[in-house]
Every structure is written in structure tokens, then in C-alpha cells.
Amino acid sequence: MTHLFLTSSIGIPGVGESIRASLGHDKKLKTAFITTPVEGDSDQSDLSWVDEDRLGLNKNDFLTFDYTITGKSLTQIQSDLSEIEVLYISGGSEFYLKEKSNESGFEEFVHAFVEKGGLYIGTSCGSIIAGSDMSPLKQLSDLATISSPVDTRGFGLVDFTVLPHWGSDNFKERWLCDES
């Protein structure tokens, strides 16, 4: 059975609890907290949201450890993450994560993990990249950290585009920008 949870933030009260309740058990779950999207976020001045998301996971018995795919090979990722039960992809830069996924083969790992029944949780960037097309976000994203041509293809875990934070005051300027 495939378990995908795509959210804006797991640090929001009730989100982690809702995911745990839908799983139907209270077993502690070894969770890789993929920090790579955070590395690509050009605004590093306030990363409290990362800590809030980590806390939202940990207080619901998702036992997290931070992991980056940057500079890793597919073989190393497969070895390092061979015993996880949950793959959590944090917020940050979806296009930076895609660039690092292309370099490392991470997308192949994600597909194999999900196909074997692993639990995928994405917040913000992790939700966006789960879709098949990220092109609607290209004009809204800060691409300063991207070194190669922008790849707008998502992982294709779902056949729709996720637009997290829609209507949020913190993201209103980003979503409602007028390019005309």
C-alpha cells in the first residue's frame, strides 16, 4: 500500500497527529529528514520552521535524523537509508532538490522506496516535488542557488501539482506576484 502525505508544514499543530492517526498504529518509525531543500533556500536568516517541522515529527514518534543527498551517489544513499521506514522531505528550494536528485539518482531511490511500501511525507518543497510538473512554480521561485538549467519535472508520485501555502500571509507576496 502506498502512503503519501503532502502538506504545507508538519510543524502546524494537528498535522503530525493526523498522519499518525491515519497509520493506525503507534510504533516508533525511523525517519530520514531530508535537509537538502533547506541548503538551497537562499534565505537562511530564519530557519525556525525546520525545527518546528522536526519537532512535529518527533513528538509523533517519527524518530528523525538529518540527511542530505548533496554530494552522494545512489549507492551511498541506498546504503545510508536502507533501514528507514519514513522518508520525510523538508521545505526549501524544490529546484535545488531536483538538481541534487538528478546528480545523485535520489529520485530512483524515492520511487523504489515508495513502491516497496515506504511512507513518504513531504512538506512544502517535499510536496511540490512529489508531483509531475513544477513549472508553475518556476516564476515564483528564487533560482539563485541553482547551477544548472532548471529541471521542472517532479518525481511523479502523484499526477497533479501541489501548491502549498496558498493563501498564507507568509507566502502571499510569492503567490500573488504580478509579472505584467
Question: In words, what does this structure look like?
Answer:
The structure is a single chain. The protein is 36% helix and 14% strand. It is an alpha/beta fold and 180 residues long. The chain has a 5-stranded parallel β-sheet. The longest helix is centred in the N-terminal third of the chain and has 11 residues. It is globular, with a radius of gyration of 15 Å.
- Largest beta-sheet characterization: 5 strands, parallel
Beta-strand content = 5-15%
Radius of gyration of CA atoms, rounded to a whole number: 15 Å
Rounded average pLDDT: 88
Q: Distance between termini?
A: 45 Å
Q: How many individual helices?
A: 9
Strand order of the largest sheet: 1-5-4-2-3
Helix content bin: 25-40%
pLDDT under 50 segments (min length 5)?
A: none
- Tell me, briefly, the overall form: globular
The oligomeric status of these chains comes to single chain
Number of strands: 5
Reading the helices and strands in chain order gives: EHEHHEHEHHEHHH
Secondary-structure class? alpha/beta
